[in-house]
Amino acid sequence: MTKPGEYYPRDMSIHPPALAPDYKTSVTRSPQFARISLEQTISDITGPTFGHGDIAPGDHDLLSNYAKTGDPIGERIIVHGRVLDENARPVPNTLVEVWQANAGGRYRHKKDSYLAPIDPNFGGCGRTLTDEDGYYVFRTVKPGAYPWRNHLNNWRPAHIHFSVFGSAFCQRLITQLYFEGDPLIPLCPIVQSIPDAGAVDRLTAKLDLNATIPLDSIAYRFDIVLRGRRSTLFENRLEGN
Amino acid sequence: MTKLPYLPETASQTAGPYVHIGLAPGAAGFDIYDHELGHDIAGPNAEGEHIRVEGCVLDGTGSPIKDVLIEVWQANSKGVYAHPESNGAVEDGFRGWGRVIPDFDTGIWGFDTVKPGATPGRNGTTQAPHITLWLVARGINLGLTTRLYFDDEAEANAADPVLNLIEWERRRETLIARRDGDVYRFDINIQGEDETVFFDI
Question: Which residue ranges does the record assign to the Intradiol ring-cleavage dioxygenases domain (chain A) (predicted)?
Answer without folding.
Answer: 45-228
